[in-house]
Write a structure and sequence with these properties.
Elements lengths: L1 H112 L7
Length: 120
């Protein structure tokens, strides 16, 4: 009879251990589930942040492209203005050189027509 009591006492002690083990497993499963959920939330936040950074980068690239296009157009306009100015300067110098040559040749011809020092 003493052995039966011990066996019965041991059986209840085993039942307590099984219940504790089940509770620990449940707690572990809950903790793992919470950790997985937190990781998923963090992953979602990282994805959203990456999307915001990508969108900001695309917007920055578009602005840079627009600025480059505007700068190129301004450079083209100023290049055309400079070319027009250079053309005008070259034409003015050509007219001046032509006039100087004409006056020089007329002066040379006038000197050749002189017959005395008084005419010079």
């Amino acid at each position: 009879m003493a052995e039966t009591r011990r066996d019965a006492g041991g059986a209840s002690s085993g039942a307590d251990e099984s219940g504790g083990l089940a509770a620990a497993e449940t707690a572990t499963a809950t903790a793992i589930g919470s950790a997985v959920a937190a990781a998923e939330r963090a992953g979602g936040a990282v994805e959203r942040q990456a999307e915001r950074v990508a969108a900001s980068s695309r917007q920055g690239m578009q602005q840079a492209a627009q600025a480059a296009e505007t700068g190129a157009a301004a450079a083209l306009r100023s290049g055309v203005s400079v070319a027009d100015g250079v053309r005008d300067i070259a034409a003015t110098w050509a007219h001046y050189a032509e006039e100087v040559m004409r006056h020089s040749s007329q002066a040379g011809q006038a000197l050749l027509r002189c017959r005395s020092w008084n005419e010079v």
